[in-house]
Amino acid sequence: MSDLDLARRVLAGDESAFDEFFAVYFPRLYRFARHRLGANDDSAEDVVQATLIKALDKLHTYRGEAPLFTWLCTFCRREISAWYQRARRNAEVSLDDERGGAGPLLDAIALPPLDDPAQALDRRELSQLVHATLDLLPGNYSDALEWKYIDGLSVVEIAERLRLSYKAAESLLTRARQAFREQYSLAAGSRPTEDG
Amino acid sequence: MRDEEEATAALLRFAGIRLDPPADRTARVRTAVRQEWRSAGRRRSMRRRAVIAIASLAAAAAFVLMRRGNAPPAPQSPPEAIVATAGRTEGAPLARRRIDDRVVGLRLHAGDALRASDAIETDATSRAAWTTADGSSVRLDRSSRARLVSPAVIELGDGAVYIATADGAAGFEVQTPFGTARDAGTRFEVRLGGVSLRVRVRTGLVDVRRGEATVRAGAGTEATVTSGGMATRSVSIHGAEWGWMATLGSPFPIEGRSLSAYLDYLSAEQGWTVRYANARLAQAASSIILHGSVEGLEAEEAVGVALRTSGLQYRLREGDLLVSGGNAQ
Q1: What is the CATH number of domain A1-96?
Q2: ipTM of this predicted structure
Q3: Intervals of CATH 1.10.1740.10 along chain A
Q4: Interatomic CA distance for residues B267 and B112, integer angstroms
Q5: Contact between A127 and B15 using a beta-carbon 8 Å cutoff
Q6: Which residues make up the CATH 1.10.10.10 domain(s) of chain A?
């Protein structure tokens, strides 16, 4: 289902669509906000709650031209800014990043070379970058990558979880890796290499 | 593994798993946002009805006769009753829910509302727990499927389920193709095999029914139902075979809680029998307040930490926890 289809179903009052919308976007927005609020969980909760309420109120204006997560992030940035204004620390968040696509989502994170991450960044910053990159991918891509390379699941097990054939799961993993590298390279301001 | 795959894998492993927001925060935000979303939906619906009414009046003025060929919309069914709230999960369990004429699979998360007729499914890598309206805890093992019939009734279609009824609960019923298990305030596991039903009772009493026949199983009893009949035997109420459901139980933060409350919790979750060396020690346990955290420790390690830091000694053997000695005595 496309982002626009999901938005339309939410607007139509479909409870299962709301569940899906919340399950997909709340964790991503929470990580997005928390990182920008000094890892403050209370503030992240308040900001994301306000973000979702306002975004849902304006959901009829979503046209599907950008990914839904990117669209939601514009609301989240405003809420973060408002939070800092209330806290009289407005200077800490910049809203004037005009880069398109993933750029605004990945700001304030230094970028390491892909082949030697450990030497380029400390673990926390690199983790944030990788997690932000995963958050930008379609949900089944990021889940499949984590299951395969962090949880150590086999392709067979991933196929079972996603209710796909072995071939389809294998193909999805290939596309997920490619998407991850492209998104990561985009964040780093470089092009993906020929071999992926 | 090819170079590009190796590089991606290394990067992902280095970063580790993305952490989900804490369950309590997720539940709070979901409730608040859903409430607001529903209210906004009602407001939109009222606005739409107002527009339709105005349009109808205009049409009536323009046409003297109105065609009545279209049947009025069918009254909307009330939403299915919410009968439970999802608790801890492992892996990616699903809630299958009928919406209109379709059944959709929703990834289950802690805090999700569960409705009558929802079916909860786990695969080989997932488990799920939920709490019913009366506070009873239901925990579904791996490779299992259960449908919620009402707050206190489930149909087990596959796998195994563990029930810990709340104090004062009116009882719980697990229906299976091989028979029904009904309790009156207890903790028990129901597991379906290929051709049999097995009920293990940890505390209290469970009636296992198949057709007209009923067997009453007490604590430490296993009842097995097959096409040939029903049989019972004694089983241990603690140990590794009971371990899976403990992983789905609600955590017990010890900070600020009494030692006796913590030992009661362990007794319920682990099936241990807690004994004190004397009455004075038993009384003292309720006034000993614990501090810190034992999160992440196995129960056997955690109880050792809690008791030793309370200045007490203990012996844990075959599910029997004897608390003794120390300054509190």
Answers
A1: 1.10.1740.10
A2: 0.71
A3: 1-96
A4: 28
A5: yes
A6: 108-190
At B226 the three-state DSSP class reads: strand
Q: Report the C-alpha gap between B4 and A193 in whole angstroms.
A: 9
CATH classification of A108-190 is 3.20.20.140, yes or no?
no
Whether residue B21 and residue A184 make contact (CB cut-off 8 A), yes or no, is no
A166 reaches B (C-beta below 8 A): no
CATH topology of domain B83-237: Jelly Rolls (2.60.120)
Q: How far is A113 from chain B (nearest CA, A)?
A: 11
Give me the count of residues in chain A.
Answer: 196
pTM of the model as a whole: 0.45
CA distance B325 to B26: 44
Nearest-CA residue of chain B relative to A57? B40
Q: Decide yes or no: CATH 3.90.79.10 for domain B251-324.
A: no
A48 and A33 in contact (C-beta within 8 Å)?
Answer: yes
In order along its 329 residues, chain B shows pLDDT tens digits of 677 888 888 888 888 888 888 888 888 888 888 888 887 776 666 555 544 443 443 333 333 322 222 333 333 323 468 889 999 998 889 998 877 667 788 888 888 889 888 899 998 888 999 998 888 899 999 989 999 988 888 999 889 999 998 877 777 899 988 888 988 668 899 998 877 889 999 888 898 988 878 888 888 899 998 877 888 899 888 888 888 888 888 778 888 888 988 998 888 888 888 888 888 888 888 888 888 877 777 888 888 888 888 888 899 888 889 998 765 44
Comparing CB atoms, the residue among A27, A123, A145 nearest residue B12 is: A145
Show me where the domains of chain B are located. Answer: 83-237, 251-324
DSSP assignment letter at B90: E
- DSSP tally for chain B: helices H, then strands E: 6, 21
